[in-house]
Please model this.
Amino acid sequence: MNVLVLNSGSSSFKFQIIATDLEKIKRDTDDRICRGEVEGIGGEAIIHFRRRDDAIQTFTAPVRDVTAALDYLVRYIVSDRSGVTEIRSTADLHAVGHRVVHGGELFSESARIDDRVLKGIEDCIDLAPLHNPNNVKGIVAAQELLGKDVPQVAVFDTSFHHSIPAQAYLYAIPYHLYRRYRIRRYGFHGTSHRYVAFRYRAIRGLSREQTNIITLHLGNGCSAAAIQAGSPVDTSMGMTPLEGLVMGTRSGDLDPAIVGFIARKEGLSASEVDSLLNTQSGLLGVSGLTNDMRELQAEMKEHDDRRVRLAVEIFCYRAKKYVGAYLAAMGGADAVVFTGGIGENSPDIRTRICEGMEWAGLRVDEKRNREAIGRESVISTEDSKLLAYAIPTDEELLIARDTVRVIMGVPHPS
Ligand code: ADP
Model:
């Protein structure tokens, strides 16, 4: 089954086409046919396209909206120019899997999209006004282009976290606000946490029930999850992706009184402060330079800029604090798993986060750590009681696999 995986943003989307089915899932032989990104939708869009491991091809095309962009992309893929021999017409696209950011309390697992599910995703727009409308647009575009007979599946960023108990998902605010507006912790990056938890137990030959780990997804967005017996019991992102760890441009945790204080002092509205905390804070806000960890680390090597150093130190300290908190919440864990652009590729950040965790039985093996760049590897010493792993995430693969499983009516294993 050729599954088109779509991750729709406001003026861009990422895509992959993955050939998979139940047999391929079992044998781990899914085949990534092509992938890429379309940016700048609404004007002269830039399309980055990569077939298997070929070099990236980049070209531009004027596209007015997501439907036009998807139409353009699919025409390109089926044409001889793309070199994709497996997809000769739209009939060779058998299903679509969508990353959907917010499933609220409605969706505890991936769901085949019909009118009821689409309405449910729309109902969650209130909770994710920046994200869910784009996901809806992506779904409608794919329906228009491929027809309603091609099955589409929604895979939610929130659904893995449905196991989190009330003591961890409720905020200590008047309870009627939870009942009235569904204000609670939902958590995000669920597909990534779920994927690396799955890989961890595959690497170690463990069952789901034996999986007691803390996963750290450190990318542009960052979140931690405490996973006990295979299911999350807590996670750092909240009702929105703003809470928790320090991120590229998001503040993560802060005293909620600061919001009103900034609003009064700077003459900003609530939504302007919200935007400041989401887009101008985090690594960017502290360093005053960039949200990009790689650039910050290069800068630290070249000049010892205090704010750059502080940005990195605050980032690592916050992550370490969450590891400690989750060890307490879970009564100990077997491993800490690093993933996301930073978690997968930066030995230095992993060392900083694990430093001083010997009390918990965690010691980083520096040789293993330095060599573990963009690949699955244990990075703790042989005698560590609390292990550490680097495991690259693959949300698209899990979305494609869920799409197949939902269509075939097979319950997903995690
Ligand atoms: P997204 O959350 O948008 O998917 P990624 O998971 O790709 O983003 O993570 C992007 C972050 O990963 C950026 O801060 C980038 O600088 C960082 N990153 C990527 N490679 C490295 C590296 N080798 N060293 C440090 N940081 C890195």
Summary: Residues 219-221, 248, 292-294, 297, 340-342, 345-346 surround adenosine-5'-diphosphate (CB under 6 Å). Residues 306-330 form the longest helix (25 residues). The longest strand covers residues 31-39. The chain has a mean pLDDT of 96.
